[in-house]
């Protein structure tokens, strides 16, 4: 009887733990700008662990020094945002970025800030500083990292991650349709990467570090871009993380370039520049044509006159 009671209690605890793991095992972007400290010739051998790199850019209002890697899905509020399920299995009419209020799991507030830096310079309610904003150059490689959360094991189907970048204008709040290239505003860049690209696969499949890299387009206009990381767990179950990137020109200029002056610009017309007009320079004297003097006594006066001119 005692054994039966203990068995029931044990089963209840195990069931609770499994349920908790199932509820909390949802992923999010841990780092937007991950940079490796050790290079690897074979991409398959690359390690996404903290020992092999560091983070230089985060999602909006991402708390630093909060919890160990992969544990922010149990934070308050939880880091992951699960969009509301939809009948069309696309959730394209849902909020692209969490506002902390709606969705199957609202998650943390990742709405865009104005100015955009506001989402990276403050602190949360626990006085934890927010991570810095990503800054890259045109054509740079961007690597993003996320925790496996038990969904990268061989028995699970590979689900892709969709990454979209939109030009930030300081006012527009982009919708999920925009990021899916179905709205009025079109993404500047879209990438599709595998979710299960993980390394350091120990016994705890929840904390496997995963990630992917891609190059920013060479023709990107320098400025700020709003970004979304979107992962599909099941047919109608999507999770998102949102971020911003300041893209600089290769010469270091982070602002949009100014068009060069045209040929019609009066400043470029030498006729309009007084320094270029010889008539406007009082110091310049008209040159006299040099005459040839005759030889002998007849050309003596001519040669003397030329000599006097040189002396002047």
From TrEMBL:
Question: According to the entry, what is the taxonomic lineage of the organism?
Answer: Eukaryota, Fungi, Fungi incertae sedis, Mucoromycota, Mortierellomycotina
Q: Which residues form the signal peptide?
A: 1-25
Ranges of Basic and acidic residues composition bias in the record: 70-93, 262-287
Disordered, as annotated region: 69-118, 252-312
Name listed for the protein in its UniProt record:
Secreted protein
Biased-composition ranges, Basic residues, are 288-304
State whether keyword Signal applies.
yes
Q: Which PANTHER family match?
A: CHITIN-BINDING TYPE-4 DOMAIN-CONTAINING PROTEIN
Q: Which domain of life is it from?
A: Eukaryota
Keyword terms, alphabetized: Signal
